[in-house]
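Question (not urgent): is this output format expected?
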Amino acid sequence: MLIFSIIGCEANGVVQSSKSNSEVKRNIISLTETINSSNVNILEQINNSELMKIYAEDLDTEFPMEKPILAPEEEAALKELYTNPRKVFAEIAKEEDGEEFISLMTAIVEQKDPEEIRSKLAYLLTVEELAEFDEQAKRLEVELQELAKTMAGFDKYLHWMFGGAFGLLAASAAYKALKWWASPWARAAALVVVSVSAAVVVGAAKEAYDYIDNQNGGNHSVEMADFWATVKGGGTAGTAAAAIDLTLSALFLNSTVRWVTLGIFTAIWWKFTIQALQTGQRIL
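Got this back:
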């Protein structure tokens, strides 16, 4: 939406100027490359009837279906932007405060330091507008921090769930070999060991993959806390599997019944794990 405001400068009566320097030219090239390399075309999204239908069905939407989102001149400006971005940005740079607009846009696109972006924004806003911006920025920062805390906790929860899921899978597979053991307690201990061992392998493999992918441009957190959350999940699930086996053994149920029960428990755990991943909500 910031682009809309910038492109609309001429329509708002901004006076033309003839400013030009090497920094502005560099900024124009940077913005042009960003537009040309971007897979996001705002105009295409707005003209996507299915996407806009989804927006219109949202009670909080700003895009009601019965009203056009863009005025004809705004749509024409966007078309020109995607057709010849360098020309558009060069024209903007000629307007009064145009170089400052271009500099601000470049700082945002290149993800410069927030203080640098604010200093560029301060040049274009009134004192009251800047104070309102600062207030909104602080509010947004608090909301993002709360979201980060929530997601961090949920991330550990997912590691725990997947550790248990893979641990149970390994325990179920190993049960065929373990079910003939004479001592139920030895068998139960083996189930815990197998489950934890599987979680250790999965947890280490996941963190190793994230580390390697980060070297190739990925953006993953590589933490021992994630590894231990996975291992704890394997330990919890393995203990539950051992408890199930000991209980059924005490009821004098045969090994086939115990194995089928363990398989059902494993399937349920996997279902909850996938459901948590898809919904973003805790299940267990």
